[in-house]
Amino acid sequence: KVDITQKSNHKIRKTVISKLINSGQMSIIDIRDFAGHKDEHTTLKFYGRNIRDAKEAACIADDVLGSKIAN
Questions:
Q1: CA 63 – CA 13 distance, rounded (Å)
Q2: Are 21 and 37 in contact (CB under 8 A)?
Q3: For residue 34, is pLDDT > 90?
Q4: I need a surface site. Which of 1, 25, 39, 64 has the fewest CB within 10 A?
Q5: How far is Cα 4 from Cα 17, in angstroms, rounded to an integer?
Q6: What pLDDT is stored for residue 71 in this prediction?
Q7: Please, what is the angle between helix 40-47 and helix 28-35, to 10°?
Q8: How far apart are CA 30 and CA 35, in angstroms?
Q9: Can you tell me the distance from the alpha carbon of 8 to that of 29, in angstroms, rounded to the nearest whole number?
Q10: What is the Cα–Cα distance from 5 to 70, expressed in whole angstroms?
Q11: pLDDT tens-digit map of 38-66
Q12: Distance (Å, rounded) from C-alpha 24 to C-alpha 26?
């Protein structure tokens, strides 16, 4: 038996995180923290396919990798 409430909560979570990514108003690091992920790659793996276009995805990946290399 599927818990409808649990499934609905997950759908809301996915929608909110996807909209945050698409809005471009928060950094992927802030979205990662909001999502409770330890690594921004996890956030991008599960929600990144909803990014508007491949160029934006590449820019985000560059930001993530650049910050990892710089630290």
A1: 24
A2: no
A3: yes
A4: 1
A5: 20
A6: 47
A7: 90
A8: 9
A9: 25
A10: 42
A11: 998 888 888 877 666 666 767 777 777 77
A12: 6
